[in-house]
Write a structure and sequence with these properties.
Elements (H helix, E strand, L loop, with lengths): L3 H16 L2 H9 L3 H16 L6 H7 L3 H9 L3 H11 L2 H21 L5
Length: 116
């Protein structure tokens, strides 16, 4: 599972990706480090396995991208995964639940306690 720590470390980049225009998002993905790409792969795998819950609307948005998402997860090359992300169209749907988790990790880290 994509750990809270990994999501917390990549939270600023994930927020920027979520709000960026298409051209800026593409250049950010092209220049993304390996850790960000692997975090997105882990998160996509967790979504498919049901470990990260999506709303029915989010699931409907992901359905047209089912094959691209599977290729993204099963690919072994970071370069190939970046290309799939750039043309995939599923990044926005993938990032929203991750930001919710990353924000929760940040808030629990600030309060010094664990989320229950």
């Amino acid at each position: 599972m994509a750990t809270r720590r990994e999501l917390h470390q990549n939270a600023p980049t994930l927020r920027a990706l979520a709000t960026a225009s298409r051209s800026i998002r593409r250049s950010m993905i092209a220049n993304a480090d390996k850790q960000l790409v692997l975090t997105l792969v882990k998160a996509a795998r967790d979504i498919i396995k049901g470990k990260i819950q999506l709303t029915p609307a989010q699931l409907r948005q992901l359905q047209p991208h089912e094959r691209s998402l599977g290729d993204f997860i099963s690919s072994k090359s970071v370069k190939t995964r970046k290309k799939i992300l750039q043309k995939g169209g599923f990044l926005g749907v993938l990032i929203r639940p991750l930001l919710r988790i990353a924000t929760g990790a940040l808030l629990s880290g600030l309060s010094g306690g664990r989320r229950r």
